[in-house]
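## Example pair
The file below holds two records. Each record gives the amino-acid sequence first, followed by its structure token line.
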Amino acid sequence: MTRQPFRGWHVVGAAFVAEMVSMGATFSAFGVFVRPLAEHFETTRGVITSGIGGMLLVTGVLGPVLGRVIDRGPVKAMMLLGVCLLTAGLLLASRATTLLQAGAAFCGLAAIGTAMFGPLPSMAIVSNWFVRRRGLALGVTVAGATAACRPSGPVAQPRAWSQPRARPQRCAPVAAFPRVRSGRHPGVVHRGGPIGCRRSRFLRRR
């Protein structure tokens, strides 16, 4: 019987991209838009920064619900839907004419999309692929979120919030769509084998 090649590190790469895009398009880039948003909507920066708190609240509330979904079956559909929701939320926020519309798009659609496609499913998938080197694999996965801090600011900074040329940058989450959808990474398509099983075609002692 031919032993299948271990593809766990391919899954880590896909999870790294998911973390980088989800965090870079929301939390990392948000600070660049605080001042333009405050001027555009004629409000204070404190009101604008409360959007981050709203997003954290929504993702925190959804955590247990999404964790139960991850335990029950494939994660691929959930992550793909998350990419679409995040992209739609950012696009709608860029076209908002009132602060309420922008807040609903960012703290609603974008926050839900981030929760469905960001750190939680990425780390759950990677955990199911590794036993002995699980800490290293998770560390590389989490590094995707910090790696997003460097490029997100310079990319977003020269673009005014209300200008049409800013909208393509709001489509950044689409960059992760092919990586999540790819059938070459079974760990992204399926949840993976149960931790602790003797032999699994998804779980190897790596």
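Second record, same layout:
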Amino acid sequence: MGLHFGSGAKSMKNLLIAAKHLNHIFETDDFFNQSTILMLNELNGSTPGGIILNIKESPYLTDAMPSIIQSFEAMHLPNIEMILPNIRLGGPTSGPAVCIHKIADLGKGREVSSGVYWSYKTEHIRQIVLMPNSEYRLYMGVTSWEDKEQLNKELKLGAWQQCKVTEKIIFENGNREELWLQARKECDFQFWKKTGIKKSQNYLLN
């Protein structure tokens, strides 16, 4: 799994957060069982897909790192060691390298949250990583479903929580489980804020 730039990814909007009981729903696939966060995106036409936001360390990345470094060297990037801490695993399937950043001029029409954008073009990514004090995350690989019906079935089974992605969820530091728990808290906060009901007012939760 090396870098694959220039693929025609489309607008990224929703956030899916793995339910606590996900391992009971997908007994045969353990990749998503632990604390997985997905940003929903249609990467291949009508096929739903996205990138996992909270995997910084993974055997997938370790195995792919020589190829990733070669790709950066081909882009003539200096100080590659400064880029590596910002790399995340986007999923187990080969796909476009996606950079999430805060540079509006390089993200026109691709805003994922207020003041946060995404890019996949080689030159844009090069500008972002070379910019002093630039805050970004670079995701390798993608996650996808066979079709919309598969995703809808998983949603009905309660496999995923849905909410809006925030800057904090993207750029917060922590391990996989910590970031998953923080995202779940943010999702709960968004739900209660939308309903206008304070959590303590609901007697079912007391």
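Notes on the second record: The beta strands are 12-18, 37-44, 47-52, 87-89, 98-101, 111-113, 116-119, 136-140, 143-144, 160-164. DSSP finds seven helices and ten strands in the chain.
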